[in-house]
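Please produce the structure of this protein holding zinc ion.
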Amino acid sequence: MSKYRADIGVFGGTGFYEFLTNVEEIWIETPYGAPSDKVALGEVGGKRVAFLPRHGKDHRIPPHLINYRANLWAMKELGVSRIIGPCAAGSLQPHIKPGDLVVTDQFVNRTWGRKDTFYEGPIVTHVSPADPYCPEMRALAIEAAKEEKINVHERGTVVVIQGPRFSTRAESQEYRSHGWEVINMTQYPEGYLARELGICYVNIALITDYDVGTLEHPEPVSHEAVMIAFKQNIEKLQKVLFRLIEKVPVDERACQCADALKSARG
Ligand SMILES: [Zn+2]
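Below is the modeled complex.
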């Protein structure tokens, strides 16, 4: 166990650093290799927060090559019990507009080859992600977004694609036809691995664009356009994050996330 401690973990983009006070950056080694970067430890509203940019500080690691297990294990080493995992995402439905936030409640995994479990034997462990996101933190995230007067969707399914390429029109139309709302490349296995460790996880998806199969918007997605939209909206996402951090109780958890292993072994 590290001598450093934190209550809340945040995975996200680089714009977060300036808001942390008393920052100390540390490398954490894990049995699964190195995390994406140093962890920045600091304070927000009197709470100890550990911040780790999932793509690395200079955004050098593509979604399919992120060492998700090391990132999650680093948070566990710090004693983190709650994680906030904001991400940029595309919309698959016309009513979910660029600039909106979606507090997702389900994921569909369409990635492959990613290391997505801590339990590789000899004790066989089957963890259920039936409801993969922490209900207590989801409610607080929705509340925080409403207080900031941001258009927030209170639920949504995110389909997680392998990347780094975007979807074809046919793929995008397939996802849309299932009724799924959001598309992204990093929500799996990040959130699920938190559950395996009994850590609460909430996702806040910042919509940057319409995916190519969303009917009224046939223009292909470009990384450039995504980054421009992300920068335009990052400030409001950060306001929600800080409000959420202030709201999250760290001494008591009203959810069942910590009990994930109770019925997972025979
Ligand atoms: Zn929870």
